[in-house]
């Protein structure tokens, strides 16, 4: 009988003393819709199944600014390492209990990082025109229009109004944000890429505007109704460790 999924913790289960990558995620908005696990199971990499909370899993649309991407312990790159990004993601758990996310698409506005992500890591990066604008005191607008490889023009416009800081996130808010790695096919093998960062500073947010087709462009049905969760965070610095097998064993 497989072990149960690892507990969901607001702090990373392990530190990453020697990072493979460093970066900061800034001005994040998290939109989530509930979906039936059976509807997304076929989109996950081998060795993983949908991670669920009370029998439900979720599709996430996360828009933000990537800041100062860097390799190893080198300083982050000031121009090429700064760009808006929007990803469509699912929630996964491996047979040995490691929870993570699976990215179906990652739209970014810098061509060089897109090429590195696609060619070097086989990740679904796509080149898009994107902007993140503070359009009022507590209001943020994200716009995107895909350039390559397609479908050309996929994107949209999302505007949120930030609310008060969350003191203690709910079980669902922890489930959607406290994810300490990604499952994927890296270097031609199913692997797990761990990450670590400080505890999320989270705000509940009001969705003012949402016109997007990135979810359907990623191969999913159009979201039904309003998101069940809308969150905002000013951001965190993050570190990624060495790729590991889904069970958590580091690669040679």
From TrEMBL:
Originating organism: Streptomyces griseoflavus Tu4000
Top-rank taxon: Bacteria
Protein name (record): DUF2071 domain-containing protein
Organism taxonomic ancestry: Bacteria, Bacillati, Actinomycetota, Actinomycetes, Kitasatosporales
């Amino acid at each position: 009988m497989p072990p149960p999924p690892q507990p969901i913790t607001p702090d990373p289960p392990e530190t990453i003393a020697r990072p493979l990558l460093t970066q900061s995620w800034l001005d994040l908005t998290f939109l989530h819709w509930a979906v039936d696990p059976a509807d997304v199971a076929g989109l996950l990499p081998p060795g993983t199944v949908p991670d669920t909370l009370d029998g439900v899993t979720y599709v996430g649309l996360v828009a933000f600014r990537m800041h100062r991407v860097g390799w190893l312990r080198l300083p982050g790159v000031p121009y090429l390492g700064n760009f808006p990004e929007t990803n469509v993601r699912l929630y996964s758990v491996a047979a040995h209990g490691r929870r993570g996310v699976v990215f179906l698409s990652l739209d970014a506005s810098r061509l060089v990082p897109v090429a590195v992500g696609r060619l070097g890591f086989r990740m679904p990066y796509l080149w898009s025109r994107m902007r993140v604008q503070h359009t009022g005191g507590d209001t943020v607008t994200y716009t995107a229009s895909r350039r390559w490889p397609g479908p050309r023009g996929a994107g949209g416009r999302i505007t949120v109004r930030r609310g008060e800081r969350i003191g203690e996130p709910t079980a669902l808010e922890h489930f959607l944000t406290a994810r300490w790695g990604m499952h994927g096919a890296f270097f031609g093998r199913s692997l797990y890429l761990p990450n670590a960062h400080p505890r999320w500073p989270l705000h509940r947010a009001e969705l003012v505007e949402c016109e997007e087709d990135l979810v359907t462009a990623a191969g999913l049905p159009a979201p039904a109704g309003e998101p069940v969760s809308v969150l905002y965070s000013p951001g965190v610095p993050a570190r990624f460790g060495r790729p590991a097998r889904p069970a958590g064993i580091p690669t040679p």
